[in-house]
Each structure stands twice: as C-alpha cells, then as structure tokens.
Amino acid sequence: MSETAIREEFDQHKEFGLVPPESAVLNLEAEEISVEDIASPEIQSLIDGMYRIAEDNKNMMVGLAAPQVGESKQIVLIAINKFIPGEPPNIQLQEFINPVIIDESEETVEMFESCYSTDCICGMVERAKSITLRAYNRYGEVFEHVFEGPPEAHFAKHEYDHIKGIRFPERIIDDSKLHWVNINDEEEMKRYKETMANQGYWPPFPRQKYRDLQAGVPLATFA
Ligand SMILES: [Zn+2]
To answer: What's the predicted TM-score (pTM) here?
Structure first.
C-alpha cells in the first residue's frame, strides 16, 4: 500500500463531508434539541444528511455524531444490530436525539477504537460492557435501546461522547494504549492492521498530538 493510499484512508472524512479532526466544534458540548424542533426541516435534513454520509461510506459506518458534520446538536446515529464475530455485519443505524444514559454496567471491557475525527490516532478503550440509552427518534417519540457489547456498547458510548465534546483518546488513561499510525512506515502500517485483528501491538504514542488536534492544529504531517 503506497503512502498516498494510506493517507487517503485517513482522509476519508473529507470525502464524506465530515469536518476536519482539528475542528473546534468537536470539542464542544452539543446543543439539546427542543422536542418541537425535531420535526423542523432543518433537523430533518440534518438527519437525512447524516444517513446519506453513512450510505456513501458503503454502509460500513457504525456511528456518526452531528458535531462530526459540523453541527453542534445532540443527534447521533448508532448501529443497533448485533455484531457476530466472523460474520459480515448487517449494519442498521438508528438516530438518537438528545440521548441520555439510563443504565451502564459496572463491568468494563477493552476494545480497539479509531475515529474519523481523530486522524491517525487509535487505541484501546475501556468502557462499560453494556449501556442503555433513552432518546427521541426523528418522529419525536421516546424510545430506549440496550447495547450489549462489545462492540455494541463501545460504539454507543463513543457516539454519545461525541455530543459531549469528548473523543476516545480522553477515555484512555494509560498512554501505552494510545497509538499513532505512522503512515510513512509501511511495516508499521501492516502491524497496525494486524493490531485491529489481535489488539497486540502498541508502540509509544505522543499524547501531545491529540492535545494539538484539540487545539486546532491539523495533524496531516508526520514526524
Ligand atoms: Zn468518533
């Protein structure tokens, strides 16, 4: 895989109409939407646009938050299907408006995460094994969904965090579990790919890179 091809893989946010990872909107707590406004053309077209982005991504997106498309609003799409190891997922997204966590297991589990909004940063995130969200759907109806994971509960909390202005590197306390993919090093890239499968390889990561990103510094160049 050429350096350019790898770079393109990490630049998919541009292709999908997502804001760049250094955008300030990603650090903000998103606005709650009043129930009367859910039916408004503005909110309905924002939701349509988010579904369109997921579809353009060959229906492989497991979640998307409105701040990632530049709208500081409490809307997230989250996969509600079950993920069965070894089987191709049949991703089914559901919109969650003003989601609240009504239950979260004490038991936690680690899982590999990456994000369109963190550039080449990935890492192992410890999160609750199960989580229940209550939210409005696009018709203004209240519903609840139980995510039994991983990966389901990780996906849900990752998206929920986005509307709080939190990205997954902030959920990682141990720096050795944060990873920066060096796209200039093909070997490293190969090991990173393997990591996605076996979660076993963790070269050191300079946390400062994430702080730079939060401060608005684009991370498109590599040391
Ligand atoms: Zn994300």
So the answer is: 0.86
CA gap 155, 147 in Å, rounded: 9
Active site residues: 159
Q: Which residue has the tokens 């955008």?
A: 23
User: Ligand 1 mean position to 186 CA, how many Å?
Assistant: 25
The SS3 assignment for 25 reads helix
Q: Which string of DSSP letters, residue by residue, matches 132-154?
A: EEEEE-TTS-EEEEEEESSSHHH
Query: What is the 21 CA–ligand 1 centroid distance (Å)?
Result: 10
Within 10 angstroms of residue 137's Cβ, the number of other Cβ atoms is 14
Residue 114 Cα to ligand 1 midpoint, Å, equals 7
Query: What does residue 128 show for φ and ψ, rounded to 5 degrees?
Result: -60, 145
Taking only the tens place, the pLDDT of each residue in 2-37 is 556 656 666 665 667 899 999 999 999 999 999 999
pLDDT at residue 214, rounded to an integer: 87
Pick the CATH number of 3-214 from 3.50.50.60, 1.10.530.10, 3.90.45.10, 1.10.3720.10: 3.90.45.10
